[in-house]
Amino acid sequence: MPFPILKAKVPPGQPIKVSVRKSLAFSLLDRYLSLLVSIVSTMVLARLLTPAELGVYSVAMALLIMAATLRDMGAGNYLVQEKELTTDRIRAVWAVQLGIGVLLALTVTLLSTPAARFFREPAIRDIMLLLALNYLVNPFGSLTYAWLMREMRYDAIAVMRLSSTMVGALVSMFLAWRGHGAISLAWGSLSATAVNAGVSMFFRPPGYPWIPGTRELRRVLTFGVQLTGSTAINTVSAASPEFLLGKFQGMAAAGYYSRANGLVAMFNRLVVDAVYSVALSMFSQQSRSGRSYAEPFIRALSYLTALSWSFTAGLVLLAHPATMLLYGEQWGPSVPLTRWLACAAAVAVPIPLCTAALVGAGQLRRMLNSTLVMAAATLCAATLGALLGLAALGPAMVLASCVGISAWIYNTRQQVRFTWSALAHCCMRSFTVAAATAGGPLAAVLIFGWIPETKLAPLTLGISGGIIGFVVAVIFSHHPLGDEMKRLRIILVDKLHRK
Question: Which one of 11, 129, 183, 338 counts the least CB within 10 Å of its CB?
Answer without folding.
Answer: 11
